[in-house]
Specification:
single chain; 155 residues; alpha+beta; Alpha-D-Glucose-1,6-Bisphosphate, Chain A, domain 4
């Protein structure tokens, strides 16, 4: 059987929804938190971001041993400051590893910050359920995003 997995991660940021949403939709800002693991020597080879319905996102990078990762995403729903829905293919060393659907919901908090809810559903093509690892990796991305938005809020 082909394994599938779903997880949800919530975060609350001190910044307004507009700034949190922009961190997902602005190339220079997203490049500061959405990346391969720099502590393992991962380096960017190619990055593109076209946030509109039908637009795409590409992030390709390599580890020092030459192992290449490629994220190819498509935007299906773009509701500014409210919601993003994307699907993406993840290739590892040139082989399709997984296909996923992500939803990122943004809502203002009473304190003027942002509550973000990220949900991913993935099918693992290679037959191994990697949901736990995907959740862990996504949490690391969102930790970097949290630190970035804390810096923005601190001014």
């Amino acid at each position: 059987m082909t394994p599938h997995g779903t997880f949800t991660i919530e975060r609350t940021f001190p910044t307004p929804v507009e700034k949190a949403f922009a961190a997902w939709t602005t190339l220079d800002t997203k490049a500061r938190w959405f990346m391969g693991p720099p502590e393992r020597g991962w380096k960017i080879l190619r990055r593109e971001l076209d946030v509109r319905v039908g637009g795409h996102e590409i992030m390709e990078g390599a580890f020092p041993d030459g192992f290449v990762t490629l994220y190819e995403g498509r935007y299906h729903v773009v509701e500014p400051n409210r919601r993003l829905v994307t699907s993406f293919d993840l290739f590892l060393a040139g082989e399709l590893h997984s296909v996923a659907l992500d939803t990122v919901d943004f809502e203002p908090t009473a304190a003027g910050g942002t509550r973000m809810v990220f949900t991913e559903t993935t099918v693992y093509i290679d037959g191994e359920d990697a949901t736990a690892g995907r959740r862990e990796g996504t949490a690391l991305h969102l930790d970097r995003l949290s630190r970035l938005l804390d810096e923005v809020a601190a001014g």
